[in-house]
Write a structure and sequence with these properties.
The chain is mostly helical. 46% of the residues lie in helices and 8% in strands.
C-alpha cells in the first residue's frame, strides 16, 4: 500500500493541517484525507506542491510503500 508521509513532514515543521493548507493553497480537508490515506486520488500538482514546500529531492521522501498483511 502506498502512503503519503504528510503528517510526519507537517509535524516536523510544527504545522497544523490548516497552516499547511494556507501555505500550499491545498484545501485543508484534501490534505487531511491525503494524510489519513482516505483520498481517492493524489493530484500530481498537489504532490509537486508538497515536494516544493517541504524542499524534498526524492519522491520516496513523500510517499512510502508498506506491505499489506499477508503479502
Amino acid at each position: 500500500m502506498l502512503r503519503l508521509k504528510i503528517q510526519e513532514l507537517r509535524e516536523a515543521e510544527k504545522l497544523s493541517v490548516r497552516q499547511l493548507s494556507e501555505a500550499t493553497s491545498i484545501r485543508w480537508n484534501t490534505l487531511s484525507d491525503m494524510e489519513k490515506n482516505t483520498a481517492k486520488h493524489w493530484p500530481p500538482e498537489h504532490l509537486e506542491t508538497l515536494m516544493k514546500f517541504f524542499k524534498l529531492k526524492q519522491i520516496d521522501q513523500l510517499i512510502d510503500y508498506e506491505k499489506e498483511a499477508g503479502e
